[in-house]
Amino acid sequence: MKTYTTYSILFGLFFLGFSLQQGLAQTFTLDNSQSTMKVEGTSNLHDWEIDVEALRGTLEVEQNGESITFKKLSLKIEAESLKSGKRAMDKNTFKALDTDEHQYLTYTLKKVLDVQQISASTYTVKTSGSLSIAGTTQTVTIPFQMQVEKESVSLTGSHDLQMTAYNIEPPTALFGTITTGDTVKINFETTFINQTL
């Protein structure tokens, strides 16, 4: 009877420890080398595209069976890492973003509005968060698709914004003869690596 009780206690402790491990929050760090973010816009001459070269971020989630809970999501972009491959255009971009005063663009998750599981490891997520650009912060709704693996989480989506909503005057060139549209689209494919394994 004593042996049975001892084994029962040990098994119970093992099972409890396993369950707690499954429910622990997992922390992921954005891998810049595996992630891409682009800003797309228009002008009266041609469409344009800018790559984000320096992107940092942290994601914290807790998974219990098929349910998943977001604890944290934050992104930080170096403003002068937005590069078009054209020096004059980059100079106008940095001026519009006032990079001397505002060196970073940031996003912080505030609330998860909806999560839908579409396969064993894929979810569609709708979030509300704070996006800060050039010293102005707005609350934005961003949907994305999330792919969950043991060692990584990938987020893929896009967001349209108006530059004037962030008190940014759309850049111009050649004495105002080239003008850019107010609306830009941010496309992202970001990969976060598990730091708790």
Automatic annotation (TrEMBL):
It comes from the Bacteria. Pfam families: YceI. Residues 27-193 form the Lipid/polyisoprenoid-binding YceI-like domain. InterPro entries: Lipid/polyisoprenoid-bd_YceI, TTHA0802/YceI-like_sf. PANTHER family: PROTEIN YCEI. This is Lipid/polyisoprenoid-binding YceI-like domain-containing protein. It comes from Leeuwenhoekiella blandensis (strain CECT 7118 / CCUG 51940 / KCTC 22103 / MED217) (Flavobacterium sp. (strain MED217)). The lineage of its organism: Bacteria, Pseudomonadati, Bacteroidota, Flavobacteriia, Flavobacteriales.
